[in-house]
Specification:
Layout: H1 6-11, H2 16-23, H3 29-36, H4 38-47, H5 49-52, H6 58-71, H7 75-82, H8 86-102, H9 109-126, H10 131-139, H11 142-151, H12 153-157, H13 159-174, H14 178-186, H15 190-195, H16 201-205, H17 207-217, H18 222-229, H19 233-251, H20 261-282, H21 284-289, H22 293-307, H23 336-349, H24 361-370, H25 379-395, H26 399-408, H27 410-421, H28 429-442, H29 446-454, H30 457-464, H31 470-484, H32 489-497, H33 503-512, H34 517-535, H35 543-547, H36 550-554, H37 559-569, H38 574-588, H39 595-602, H40 605-608, H41 649-659
Helix pairs in contact: 2-6, 4-8, 6-9, 8-9, 8-11, 9-13, 11-13, 11-14, 13-17, 17-20, 19-20, 19-22, 20-23, 22-23, 23-25, 24-25, 25-28, 26-27, 26-29, 27-28, 28-31, 30-31, 31-34, 33-34, 34-37, 34-38, 37-38
Length: 662
């Protein structure tokens, strides 16, 4: 590389850049670019970069790259530019200009910032939908230089135009380009994106660019580690979301004056909401960074903001079929933005680090107010109540916390039982699902079982267990299983057996007709618990009343689901297998009951083998548990023989005995 002296740089005539600019004409960009012959000018810049950056020529250089950036908006021109040394020249001058500005040189600073903006615009437009240009810019160091610009104080001081150009370059050069995105992350470009989410009209103007670029970077796995290391990022994103929610509330919905600020804020907020939601879903460390009362209150503010917004048809979430929702997850709301906020709230409150928030007075008061039953049936209030129930259920995961909720807030407990879960005509299914999850947690504590049963929880859960909504059904099964294993056993068993078409009979039908673990496994555990309580009562006070339920239980086929669980799930769930074996032992020992005869029938391989076939794989065959048998023989339609037979129940029991050394 040949370097000229300072005197030569200052006294030289028109630079090649100025000459090239003069050669441009009014023809379309592609033709004008071809006529002006770009290659010699780029070669000169690469051989004499100091001349291009000299004070006498820097403005002409900046104007040249401004023209090239403007031309680069055209896809045909971008293809022409990609065949030249423009990416290399841009990278060289960008690196040098950024270094000059970082050295705090006051000489010609305004001109250098002007050039920097044009170089960044050139990076932005060159790389638009052009992986070849992106690769060349990465190879020659432009991507790292863009990251250094983002990290500089100049971007914060001048969101317009410098920040706009820098974030635009970061977005386009890394959009769907893994290597460039990883290079930006490695150079520390993620935290500056978060810092740019600041108040102020100029900063707001670049929010869409910042959020889109942040969204693109956060799709990379490397972003998770950076968010985990920089503990200020996730709280800053949340604070920005909440601050803009407040700002939008102050601006109101009137956009008749042509002000597009509300629309800009809303669009940027939505992008940022998804970024934060996905970050929290990916990393427990990031979730733990928000395990403070102030942050959870901000999450509730964001949720309230989106619940207050009208839902446009195009923005309505596609609700999954009820039986597609796992019972331990929040059910989706119609407003997908409110749903994202609720997911974040549940994720954060579900961390062990959040358990300390249970004692926070401000947060507790907010959650209790959200669960006030007076406005039950209002869709927005129901959605708030669902979020509050999920959050409180996560915070009340210790016996002490559960006992405190029921003891200190009996009106809340009664509202959860009678309204939020029990009033199916008024309360929507999402809220009933959340309330049932909270009640399932609360009745784990031994001290709460009788209190909640006295509030009618056993009867309500037995009734609500008959729903076709799987998450609610699964939670109600869990509630009843907790209640039957405690002082409330009698009330629970009576609730399950009340009426001619009792809830336990319907549960047996559900267990026989599903392969959903939350129903089959937990439902069978409930059957086992009821059987043990009724046929092996321990509580002297309730022993006679529990024994009085035996004739009603003898009318039901309690054996088949227990055998089926052992055969299908015993290897995966040893505890469930053990519970079922104990229950079968109790039932087989019961006098004057048909359980032993039914068990003997199922020791015949032809009768038990079909039970080991999941319903989804049965392909139209009739499984043995499809009918209730009370005689010594099994109906013919219950027996399915196949050439490729699995082990029968008799062989499975033999294996278990051999394992125990019997």
């Amino acid at each position: 590389m040949v370097h000229s002296t300072k005197a030569q740089r200052e006294t030289a005539g028109p630079s090649p850049a100025a000459q090239w600019l003069a050669a441009l004409d009014s023809r379309p960009a592609a033709a004008s670019l071809a006529a002006a012959q770009l290659a010699p000018m780029l070669t000169h810049m690469l051989e004499h970069p100091d001349q291009a950056l000299a004070s006498a020529h820097i403005v002409a250089t900046a104007k040249t790259f401004k023209a090239l950036a403007d031309m680069g908006r055209d896809a045909a021109v971008r293809a022409q530019l990609a065949a030249t040394d423009l990416a290399r020249a841009t990278s060289t001058l960008l690196r040098q200009t950024e270094a000059d500005l970082s050295n705090n040189s006051s000489s010609g600073r305004a001109e250098r910032v002007f050039l920097l903006v044009q170089l960044l615009r050139c990076v932005c437009n060159q790389s638009a939908d052009h992986d070849g240009a992106r690769a060349a810019l990465l190879e020659h160091g432009a991507v790292a230089a863009v990251a250094r610009v983002l990290c500089s104080d100049d971007v914060a001081r001048q969101p317009l135009p410098l920040g706009q150009a820098a974030f635009g370059a970061a977005l386009n050069v890394a959009l769907d380009h893994a290597d460039c995105a990883d290079a930006l992350l490695a150079a520390g470009a993620l935290p500056p994106h978060v810092r740019a989410l600041q108040p102020g009209s100029d900063a707001l103007a670049i929010w869409p660019l910042v959020c889109s670029s942040l969204d693109n970077l956060c799709e990379r796995e490397a972003s998770v580690a950076q968010l985990e290391q920089d503990v200020a990022c996730a709280p800053a994103m949340l604070q920005a979301l909440a601050a803009n929610a407040r700002a939008l509330a102050e601006l109101g919905d009137d956009e008749s004056d042509g002000d597009d600020e509300p629309q800009v804020r809303r669009g940027a907020m939505r992008t940022l909401l998804w970024v934060l939601c996905e970050a929290l879903e990916k990393s427990a460390v990031v979730r733990q960074q928000l395990c403070e009362s102030a942050h959870v209150l901000l999450l509730l503010d964001v949720l309230d903001h989106y619940l207050a917004q009208p839902v446009e048809p195009a923005e309505t979430a596609e609700l999954a079929a009820p039986d597609a929702q796992p019972p331990n997850r929040p059910m989706p709301q119609q407003n997908r933005y409110a749903d994202a906020a609720a997911q974040m709230l549940v994720g954060v409150s579900g961390e062990d680090a959040a358990l300390a928030l249970f004692d926070d007075a401000a947060l507790t008061a907010r959650l209790l107010a959200m669960l006030a039953p007076e406005r039950a049936g209002d869709r927005t209030h129901d959605a708030r109540a669902a979020a509050a129930a999920l959050c409180l259920g996560n915070l009340a995961r210790t016996d002490a916390h559960c006992e405190h909720v029921v003891r200190a807030h009996p009106q809340l407990a009664q509202a959860l039982v009678g309204v939020w879960l029990g009033d199916a005509q008024t309360v929507d299914v999402r809220t009933r699902h959340a309330a049932s999850g909270l009640l399932k947690n609360l009745c784990v504590a031994a001290a709460n079982k009788q209190r909640l049963a006295d509030m009618g929880l056993a009867a309500v859960a037995a009734r609500c267990m008959r729903t076709a909504v799987v998450p609610v059904q699964a939670n109600c099964i869990g509630i009843l299983r907790h209640l039957v294993n405690g002082a409330s056993a009698l009330q629970t068993a009576q609730a399950l057996l009340a009426g001619d078409a009792c809830a336990l009979a319907e549960l047996l039908d559900a267990v026989r007709s599903t392969d959903i673990d939350g129903i089959r496994c937990e439902g069978t555990r409930l059957v086992a618990a009821v059987a043990k309580k009724a046929f092996l009562p321990r509580a002297a006070a309730d022993a006679d009343a529990l024994r009085a339920l035996q004739p009603r239980l003898a009318e039901l086929d309690l054996v088949t689901p227990l055998v089926r669980l052992i055969m299908l799930d015993g290897q995966r769930h040893p505890l469930l297998q053990q519970e079922s074996l104990v229950a079968l032992t109790v039932l087989a020992s019961a006098p004057a009951a048909p359980f032993a005869a039914r068990l003997v029938c199922l020791l015949v391989p032809a009768n038990s083998v079909p039970l080991a076939t999941p319903l989804a794989a049965a392909e139209g065959t009739v499984a043995a548990e499809g009918a209730v048998a009370t005689e010594d023989t099994v109906a013919a339609e219950d027996i399915v023989a196949t050439e490729d037979t699995a082990a029968g129940f008799d062989e499975l029991l033999a294996r278990l005995l051999r394992q125990e050394g019997a």
